């Protein structure tokens, strides 16, 4: 029950501990080197000592350790033995130094038997330890610019040696943390915060692509600026601090691009039609994007692009814009280019006025517009003739003729182009004066005055002055009859032309009130009778001819009007005083004509084609076949139609409706139609030797007779069985051929039916 354990091991000692053993008055420990002859150490301990150290051992040596419990008589009560190696010898530090602000590197001579080493850096009460396998070793996680006591212990499987004599080493300075920017296209500004224990700083700069030379500056300040750099170029900046002994600390490296150079050779091209400008420039080194600004007063228009041109839309006419270009990259922006002036096209002139200052002369005037260098006025008459006037003033004179309407447009121009189209004005000159006036005496109190019509006149006024009064006549025609004049009197006759209508027609003519259709060819015309002595004549006029009816009342009937025709119906009144002017015409349309010909052709057993001749005045047609078994109907613009769902062997009534463009309808009936007899079903073929065939079928009706036809390349054969039979034998047909077999009903008239099902026989 007696045992010992290892408490601690060093290079030259092993510390043991054991439990108290009953009856023991002392303990004896013997350490014997296993591989070394004659090296044995003996130590005695009292009964109150439960832990003891054996010293003066050989480093890196395995010992057999025997512990004995002894009573007061010197007898051994119990004993135990264990094996334990001493730690390697104590290393000796050759040098300790710092290359980084958070670490110290230690160098030493290797120790025999050491498998690893424990490095310790002490700063006051603070310890930092690191286990390494060989020299040199580095302790990390240290503070910058701090003095440390460095020790080292060797380690093997037995334990750790005692610490080596310490060496002092100081960590180097921390790196300055740089803030960089490019205040201009050829400079980079560098700044940093103060570094603890730093006496000065060294900052170097070089192009990242390795071109050019390196720039280096030493300073005690915390900022500096590198100038005369290449615009838009990426630079690498490196900086470190040094202490009073000139020892450099950690370095800090970063990249910074200079801002781009101001773009050059800015060109502005203006599109007058679209009121937009295309701005272009020479690309600049290192620029990622460009921004174009067009400023006019408080208005600013922008466009952004990554190419070397940009379109600025929505420019305003009559404005001057100052266009500049700025280049951008991740470092910032260049200086804007010198502004390029862009004057847009002038706006369309306004306040246009047109005056006829004297007959034959038009004066066109307008207000001046911004950037309008000169103006062009286009004057086009209604006969197509156009003249123009170029001027730098704000008015133009034109020759004009009477009775014309002139269309006037005013444009402003400058070097950029033509203004947009403004309002188009029209001006109508006074009508020409009537000429070639002639007066002829009709009776003692009546004169007829005629003259040549003149351009622009919409109405004429004829005035006859003579005796003690005057007579006035207004008319739109170039003639006027002056009545109720005094006989044997001289009159002065003047004819005036007017461009606006004055007055109304005072003729008394009948007015057609209503037209009603009695039948398709009988039309009743009604009017308002306003003269009991008058006889009324109604005329229907159309491409088909003239039809008349006469009445002294307020209606008459037009008969035998042709179908599908259009007429214009008017009426006149006749009385002993003379004939009235005709009434206003009323349009009349008769119902369309029925087609003269209608043909039905059976296409298949259930489909029939129906066609017809064109009906005069008809636009669409509705055809129908009706029977007790059902109806087939079609509405079409054509003169033919396919009707489906026809039942075979059925009698149908045939009807057709012809419909005009305005919806008038004629219902037409035709002779009835019988669909073909039904084809047989269940057709089967049986061989009768090499040159015979029996055809068998099921008849759709016992009263129907059928034909059997064989068609082959070596001949055609027909068989008609006796009435009521549903089979047929065909013999003596050439062998070695493929035949098409058709069984179809026998028709009284017309060709054989070709749409019954076919069978192939080989």
UniProtKB/TrEMBL annotation:
It holds the Pfam family fn3. Residues 87-174, 175-261, 262-347, 348-432, 509-593 form the Fibronectin type-III domain. PANTHER family: FIBRONECTIN TYPE III DOMAIN-CONTAINING PROTEIN 7 (PTHR47135). Gene3D superfamilies: Immunoglobulins. It comes from Phaetusa simplex (large-billed tern). It comes from the Eukaryota. Signal peptide: none annotated. This is FNDC7 protein. InterPro entries: FN3_dom (IPR003961), FN3_sf (IPR036116), Ig-like_fold (IPR013783). CDD domains: FN3.
């Amino acid at each position: 029950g007696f045992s010992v354990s290892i408490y601690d091991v060093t290079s030259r000692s092993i510390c043991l501990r054991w439990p108290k053993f009953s009856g023991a008055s002392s303990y004896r420990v013997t350490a014997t080197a296993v591989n070394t002859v004659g090296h044995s150490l003996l130590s005695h301990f009292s009964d109150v000592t439960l832990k003891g150290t054996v010293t003066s051992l050989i480093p890196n040596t395995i010992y057999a350790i025997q512990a004995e419990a002894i009573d007061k008589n010197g007898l051994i009560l119990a004993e135990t033995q264990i094996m334990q190696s001493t730690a390697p010898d104590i290393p000796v530090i050759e040098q300790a130094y710092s290359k980084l602000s958070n670490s110290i590197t230690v160098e030493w001579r290797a120790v025999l038997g050491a498998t690893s080493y424990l490095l310790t850096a002490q700063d006051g009460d603070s310890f930092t330890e690191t286990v390494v396998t060989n020299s040199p070793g580095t302790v990390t996680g240290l503070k910058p610019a701090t003095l440390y006591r460095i020790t080292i212990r060797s380690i093997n499987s037995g334990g750790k040696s005692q610490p080596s004599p310490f060496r002092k080493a100081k960590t180097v300075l921390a790196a300055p943390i740089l803030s960089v920017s490019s205040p201009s296209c050829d400079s980079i500004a560098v700044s940093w915060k103060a570094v603890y224990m730093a006496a000065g700083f060294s900052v170097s700069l070089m192009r990242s692509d390795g071109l050019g030379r390196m720039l280096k500056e030493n300073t005690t300040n915390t900022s500096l600026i590198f100038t005369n750099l290449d615009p838009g170029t990426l630079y690498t900046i490196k900086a470190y601090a040094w202490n009073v002994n000139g020892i450099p600390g950690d370095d800090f490296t970063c990249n910074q691009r200079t801002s781009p150079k101001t773009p050059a050779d800015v060109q502005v091209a203006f599109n007058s039609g679209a009121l937009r400008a295309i701005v272009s420039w020479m690309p600049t080194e290192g620029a990622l994007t460009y921004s174009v600004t067009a400023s006019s007063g408080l208005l600013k228009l922008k466009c952004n692009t990554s190419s070397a041109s940009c379109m600025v839309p929505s420019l305003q006419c009559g404005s001057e814009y100052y266009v500049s270009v700025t280049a951008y990259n991740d470092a910032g922006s260049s200086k804007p280019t010198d502004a390029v002036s862009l004057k847009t096209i002038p706006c369309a002139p306004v306040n246009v006025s047109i005056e006829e200052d004297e007959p034959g002369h038009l004066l066109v005037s307008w207000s001046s517009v911004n950037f309008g260098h000169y103006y062009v006025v286009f004057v086009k008459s209604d006969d197509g003739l156009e003249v123009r006037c170029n001027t730098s003033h704000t008015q133009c004179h034109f020759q004009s003729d009477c009775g014309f309407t002139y269309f006037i447009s005013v444009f402003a121009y400058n070097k950029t182009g033509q203004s947009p189209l403004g309002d188009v004005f029209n001006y109508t000159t006074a009508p020409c004066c009537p000429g070639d006036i002639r007066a002829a005496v009709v009776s003692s109190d009546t004169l007829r005055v005629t003259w040549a019509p003149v351009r622009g006149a919409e109405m004429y006024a004829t005035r006859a002055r003579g005796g003690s009064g005057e007579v006035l006549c207004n008319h739109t025609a170039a003639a006027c009859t002056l009545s109720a004049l005094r006989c044997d009197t001289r009159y002065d006759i003047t004819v005036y032309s007017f461009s606006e209508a004055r007055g109304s027609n005072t003729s008394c003519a009948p007015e057609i009130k209503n037209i009603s259709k009695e039948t398709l060819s009988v039309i009743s015309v009604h009017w308002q009778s306003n003269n009991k002595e008058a006889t009324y004549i109604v005329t229907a006029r159309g491409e088909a001819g003239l039809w008349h009816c006469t009445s002294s009342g307020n209606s008459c009937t037009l008969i035998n009007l042709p179908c599908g025709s259009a007429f214009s119906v008017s009426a006149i009144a006749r009385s002993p005083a003379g004939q009235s002017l005709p009434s206003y015409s009323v349009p009349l349309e008769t119902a369309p004509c029925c087609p003269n010909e209608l043909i039905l052709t059976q296409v298949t057993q259930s489909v029939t084609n129906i066609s017809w001749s064109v009906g005069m005045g008809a636009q669409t047609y509705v055809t129908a076949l009706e029977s007790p078994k059902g109806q087939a109907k079609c509405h079409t613009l054509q003169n033919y139609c396919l009707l489906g769902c026809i039942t075979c062997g059925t009698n149908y009534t045939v009807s057709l409706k012809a419909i005009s463009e305005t919806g008038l309808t004629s219902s037409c009936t035709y002779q009835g139609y019988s669909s073909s007899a039904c084809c047989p079903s269940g057709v089967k073929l049986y061989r009768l030797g090499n040159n015979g065939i029996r055809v068998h079928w099921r008849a759709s009706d016992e009263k129907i007779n059928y034909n059997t036809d064989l068609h082959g390349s070596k001949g055609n054969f027909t068989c008609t069985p006796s009435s009521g039979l549903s089979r047929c034998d065909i013999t003596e047909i050439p062998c070695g051929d493929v035949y098409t077999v058709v069984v179809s009903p026998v028709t009284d008239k017309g060709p054989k039916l070709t749409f019954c099902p076919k069978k192939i026989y080989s």
